[in-house]
């Protein structure tokens, strides 16, 4: 073993400088090739097609379906007296979801009631089961994949301030109780 001036012991077969970089990259390439070979044996060939993406109209249909779900979940939160409910279209900003619902509750039992009602409706009507918090906290998150529900106590909502963090998201205007429903 040789003593490395950087403070670690290295076997004498290791090189320093450019030779070390080349040796490292060679080893990485070999390891990567072996990893891909193992994945190919396990899962078979995966082919990426440029045209494998959804058409723009299919994406819009998915967005509309997710929006409908998000608005209905926001209505449930409103029915359980959540305050300051916001639906944000975050798809252009994050790769992992389309919409955030952000709502304020004023106690942990109210957070529990909102979360339970949302989970029940999502499962019964849409067949969706969220991952995320099972018991109420000061910030409870229900992740439905395309829609993520955040239920906060007032202090936590002010502290985390997701609306400002995702300030470039599009705010979806929700129909109020006093407005007539939208007609097409």
UniProtKB/TrEMBL annotation:
GO MF annotation list: ribosomal large subunit binding
Protein name stated in the entry: Protein Iojap, chloroplastic
PANTHER family: IOJAP SUPERFAMILY ORTHOLOG, PROTEIN IOJAP, CHLOROPLASTIC
Record has Transmembrane helix as a keyword: no
Assembly, per entry: Interacts with chloroplast ribosomal protein uL14c (rpl14).
InterPro entries hit by this protein: Iojap/RsfS/C7orf30, NT_sf
Domain of life from the UniProt record: Eukaryota
Native organism: Gossypium klotzschianum
Pfam families per the UniProt record, alphabetical: RsfS (PF02410)
GO terms (BP aspect): negative regulation of ribosome biogenesis; negative regulation of translation
Compartment(s) of residence: Plastid, Chloroplast
Keyword terms, alphabetized: Chloroplast, Plastid, Transit peptide
GO cellular component terms, A-Z: chloroplast
Membership in a protein family: Belongs to the Iojap/RsfS family.
């Amino acid at each position: 073993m040789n003593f490395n001036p950087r403070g670690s012991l290295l076997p004498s077969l290791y090189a320093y400088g450019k030779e070390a970089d080349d040796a490292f990259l060679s080893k990485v390439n070999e390891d990567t090739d072996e990893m891909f070979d193992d994945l190919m044996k396990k899962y078979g060939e995966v082919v990426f097609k440029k045209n494998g993406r959804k058409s723009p109209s299919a994406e819009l249909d998915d967005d509309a379906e997710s929006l409908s779900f998000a608005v209905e979940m926001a209505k449930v939160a409103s029915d359980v007296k959540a305050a300051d409910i916001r639906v944000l279209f975050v798809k252009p900003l994050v790769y992992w979801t389309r919409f955030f619902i952000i709502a304020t509750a004023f106690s942990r039992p109210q957070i529990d009631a909102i979360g339970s009602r949302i989970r029940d409706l999502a499962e019964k009507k849409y067949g969706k089961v969220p991952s995320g918090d099972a018991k109420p906290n000061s910030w409870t998150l229900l992740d439905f994949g395309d829609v993520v529900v955040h239920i906060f106590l007032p202090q936590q909502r002010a502290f985390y301030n997701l609306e400002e963090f995702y300030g470039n998201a599009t705010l979806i205007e929700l129909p109020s109780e006093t407005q007539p429903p939208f007609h097409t």
